[in-house]
Every structure is written in structure tokens, then in C-alpha cells.
Design a protein that fits this description.
Transcriptional regulator, single chain, 424 residues, Serine Threonine Protein Phosphatase 5, Tetratricopeptide repeat, mainly alpha, TPR-like_helical_dom_sf, 19 helices
């Protein structure tokens, strides 16, 4: 006899907080799904079923959580909304539940000692069950690979790094969580895996694949919480705020940035600076200029207090701050100040951060053209095109499309014509 679904009071309460009707909330879920490449047509009846206890398939659960987060201005997980699909099976491999967050992306399936999942080609997709004790060597490999792939991303974009990171994380690093280890080693491994997942989220954002990015960020949050590591949690919340801002969800970006600020330790100056800089941008986008300027000053003071080398993951330095300050100033109507800060960001950007340098130059081209400085815009875009070659980045290609569209009305101008014909 089938067991009837249980009611979901958490979801009902959260939807009530949004002030939306069932039909309106269904529309918000459909909108999130469309942004992530899915055409869904949920209506009021579907929302009623969810509130009655029916648990939708992945990734719809994540779409519901994202719609709630945006509307409420704070992070809401699928678990918070009562959308987790039941308890784990007794004896289940502990990493299986974590891998569920990645849905179809996760190739690891623990089905028995050394055996692949039923119906799969074990030679083509090896899914070994982990064995042996995890120690310093495994931790070092996670840390070193994260640093290497982060540097590769800065230098040449995310395209080449993405497959390596996702493959290693799902088939090697996460299965290590099922291996015997000391409590201290397990905690450090959880944090190392959280860093890998956070980098995975960033790489997917750079490729314009926002649905996958959110799943990897959710995984990073889950691992950071289990590893009791607030700095990593703050870093991921900030990254989610950056993503929400880029997608135009300014209220949600502000809620995430504030949550990151609540979690971040003031004593960790560099992390604090990165969070305050993002908070300033989110505040400016939400029409709070005074608060934005105050947060920007907090970011500047925190960065002045920072010391030591810039970490490869979540690194924040003077060029990062200059770029965010430029964006805040542009939001507040100071285009001249924004252009000066973009010039500073170009000068201060480390040589190995080619992708970021290209994006800053592209932004300088856009703002110069917006104030009628066509030659200056073309000069910035010319340098952008010099760097574009060899960068595997959706964000860079999007900046390139913006450049071509912006220059099209000026195609008869000599410098503009040269740029438009240069990269046909």
C-alpha cells in the first residue's frame, strides 16, 4: 500500500512569507528554471502538491529554494523548505547524500566493493568504492590541485580546468570522505572538498552555466558546514551574492552579502574586505548610496590590515577592490570616478590574471563609450582583444559580443572599423 505524502509546513510558511499566491510563486519557479535552461510550466496546482508533501525531482527542488531566496532576500536551501527526499538508507555510503546535490553530474556511485553501478560501462566510467585510510598525502593533493586549477582559471579561463576539477572532486576527493581517518583529518578533508566545490561553482559561473554553479556552491556550503569552517561558508555566500548580482537579482545579492558579513570573522581582514566590497556593490544596486559608501570604506580599511600572500582561491587584492569601487561609483552615477578606478585596476592587476584583466579592459571600453569617448573605448577594447585569444571563458565571449554590438553604430569610424574587422 502506497504511503501518502506528508504535509510540508516549512514550504507553506516560506511561501506565505513571500506574499505571493500559489500561481505567482509557480511563475517565479518557472522563471528560475528558464534561467537555468529548463522550460517548465508549473501552475498553482503544483504548488499545492508541494505544500501537501509531494517532493519534486531535482533540480526543481533547487529552483524552488532559489525562488524563495530571491523573494525573501536571504539564503533558503531545499532542506529549509522541507524538500529533501526522505532519510538516508541505513548503511548507505555517507558521501552518497552529498553527491545528490550534484544530480546527474556526479559520476561516483557506491554500489559495492570496486563495482560500477548496474547498467554502466565500468571500463569507461570507473566508480570505485574507496578504501584505505586518508591522511596528509590525500589532503595535500586536494589543496595543491585546487591552487593549480585556480591559477589555471585566472590565466586562461575556466574551460580547460572545469573537467579536471569536476572529475577529481566526484571520483576521488568526495569518495575519500567515506574512508577511515582521524577526526582532525576528516574535518580538514571536508574543508578541502568545500574549496574544490567552491572553485567548481566559480568555474561554472565563468562558463555561464548558472544552474550547475549553484549546485556546486550548495555542495560547498554543505561541506563547509559539516567541517565547521565559517570562513569557507562566508566565501561561498559572497560568491553566491556575486552570481545573483550578475544575474540582476539585486535584492537576493544583498541578502547573501549581508549573510556573508554575518558569518565572516572580522579578524580575517582579506576575507572581510572581499565581503564588504561585494556588500557595497549590492547596496548601491539596491539604492542605498550612503550604506554602500560606508561598506566600501570598510573594505578599504580591511584590505589595508591584510597581510601575507594572496590565496589562490578567493583571493582579493588592491586590483579587486579598485574594480568593485569602479562598479559602485558607476551605480551611484560617478562614471568619471569609475573610469579612474578601472584604470587603476588595470595597472594593479597581477600579470597572471589574464582573464580578469581582459574583463576589466572590456568594462572600461563600455564606460568610455557611454560617455562619448569613442577613441578611448576603442583603445581599451583593442587591448581586450589582445588578451582574448586563448581565454576559454563565457564571460569573456559575452564581453566580446557586447563590444561588437556597441561598436556597430560606429562602424564607419576608423578605429572602430579596425576593431570590428580585426577579429572576424
Amino acid at each position: 500500500m502506497a504511503v501518502p505524502p506528508r504535509s510540508n509546513p516549512q514550504l507553506r510558511r516560506l511561501i506565505g512569507e513571500t506574499g505571493l499566491s500559489g500561481g505567482q510563486f509557480a511563475g517565479e519557479v518557472n522563471k528560475v528554471a528558464f534561467e537555468n535552461g529548463f522550460r517548465l510550466h508549473y501552475q498553482r496546482a503544483s504548488v499545492s502538491q508541494w505544500c501537501s508533501g509531494t517532493v519534486p525531482r531535482r533540480p526543481v527542488r533547487e529552483f524552488i529554494a532559489e525562488a524563495l531566496s530571491r523573494r525573501l532576500g536571504r539564503p533558503v536551501s531545499a532542506s529549509d523548505a522541507g524538500l529533501e527526499a526522505g532519510p538516508a538508507t541505513p548503511g548507505q555510503d555517507p558521501v552518497t547524500d552529498v553527491l545528490r546535490l550534484l544530480g546527474d553530474e556526479a559520476p561516483y556511485r557506491p554500489t559495492g566493493p570496486g563495482r560500477p553501478a548496474a547498467g554502466t560501462d565500468g571500463a569507461r566510467r570507473p566508480w570505485p568504492r574507496p578504501g584505505g585510510k586518508v591522511g596528509k598525502a590525500e589532503l595535500a593533493l586536494c589543496v595543491e590541485l585546487t591552487a593549480h586549477l585556480s591559477r589555471s582559471d585566472h590565466l586562461s579561463g575556466s574551460r580547460d580546468a572545469l573537467a579536471t576539477l569536476t572529475g577529481f572532486t566526484t571520483t576521488v576527493a568526495l569518495p575519500w570522505l567515506s574512508c577511515p581517518s582521524s577526526p582532525a583529518t576528516r574535518r580538514r578533508l571536508l574543508v578541502a572538498c568545500a574549496h574544490l566545490a567552491a572553485l567548481g561553482g566559480f568555474l561554472y559561473v565563468d562558463q555561464g552555466r548558472h544552474g550547475q554553479a549553484q549546485r556546486w556552491y550548495a555542495l560547498a556550503m554543505r561541506l563547509a558546514e559539516e567541517g565547521a569552517d565559517p570562513p569557507t561558508k562566508a566565501m561561498v555566500l559572497r560568491s553566491l551574492s556575486v552570481q545573483a548580482y550578475r544575474l540582476g537579482h539585486f535584492g537576493h545579492a544583498l541578502g547573501l552579502a549581508r549573510e556573508a558579513g554575518r558569518v565572516a570573522d572580522p579578524a580575517q581582514a582579506r576575507l572581510r574586505a572581499s565581503v564588504e566590497g561585494q556588500l557595497a556593490l549590492a547596496l548601491a544596486a539596491n539604492g542605498e548610496p550612503l550604506a554602500a559608501r560606508l561598506s566600501l570604506r570598510e573594505a578599504e580599511r580591511a584590505l589595508e590590515r591584510s597581510s601575507g600572500p594572496v590565496p589562490p582561491l578567493g583571493g582579493y587584492h588592491a586590483a579587486s577592490l579598485a574594480f568593485q569601487r569602479a562598479e559602485v561609483r558607476q551605480r551611484l552615477g560617478d562614471t568619471g570616478g569609475a573610469l579612474r578606478d578601472l584604470e587603476l585596476a588595470v595597472r594593479l592587476r597581477p600579470r597572471e590574471e589574464l582573464r580578469s584583466q581582459a574583463l576589466v579592459l572590456a568594462r572600461a571600453g563600455e564606460l568610455n563609450l557611454a560617455v562619448g569617448r569613442l577613441d578611448a573605448a576603442c583603445a581599451s577594447w583593442s587591448r581586450f582583444l589582445d588578451l582574448r585569444r586563448g581565454l576559454g571563458s563565457h564571460r569573456v565571449e559575452e564581453a566580446h559580443r557586447i563590444m561588437r554590438a556597441a561598436l556597430a553604430p560606429h562602424r564607419n569610424h576608423g578605429f572602430a572599423h579596425q576593431l570590428l574587422t580585426r577579429d572576424r
